[in-house]
Amino acid sequence: MMTTEKTKITVQVVVNTTMKKAWDSWNNPKHIVNWCFASPDWHCPKSENDLQPGGNFVSRMEAKDGSFGFDFGGVYQEVENQKFISYIMDDGRGVSIEFSETADGILVKETFEAEATNPVEMQRTGWQAIMDNYKTYTESL
Predict the structure, then answer these.
(1) What is the 3 state secondary structure string of 1-56?
(2) What does the alpha-carbon distance between residue 60 and residue 32 come to, in Å, rounded to a whole number?
(3) Terminus-to-terminus CA distance in the chain, angstroms?
(4) Cα dihedral across residues 128, 132, 137, 141: positive or negative
């Protein structure tokens, strides 16, 4: 039997904030709409989040000019308050996010299964851009 291992990509940031603020900014829809997009010509006009195992989430990502948009969503598998989240995206790929304290701030590390359509480096760059937006926004709170 042949096993196909999925490519996993990891992106991360260290946020100069408290664990409570880092967690809240990552999970609260009122904050998510301020950072969940990969470039300045996009935005996230709507977000919903039921942060519990079996709970659903969805964030609407749209080009500001209205030319394209999509819902990014999934179902939570594990949630350990202020430590760990895992979920399955609507397309079946897995994601995990770890929150840990370091001497420089809160390390947020996200690992996701790559999709087969776009190059791995393009996916890494896009997810890292979102992570960088999260850092910038959260540090401004």
Answers:
(1) CCCCCCCEEEEEEEECCCHHHHHHHHHCHHHHCCCCCCCCCEEEEEEEECCCCCCE
(2) 10
(3) 52
(4) positive
Asked if 36 contacts 59 with a C-beta cutoff of 8 angstroms, the reply is yes
Per DSSP, the residues of 44-93 read EEEEEE--STT-EEEEEEEETTSS-EEEEEEEEEEEETTTEEEEEETTS-
Across the chain, mean pLDDT equals 96
Instruction: Classify domain 8-139 at the CATH class level.
Output: alpha beta
Q: Answer whether residue 1 shows pLDDT above 60.
A: no
**Cβ atoms within 10 A of the Cβ of 132, count?**
14
d(C-alpha 59, C-alpha 24), whole Å: 16
Domain ranges of the chain: 8-139
How far apart CA 44 and CA 1 sit, in angstroms, is 43
- The structure's pTM equals 0.95
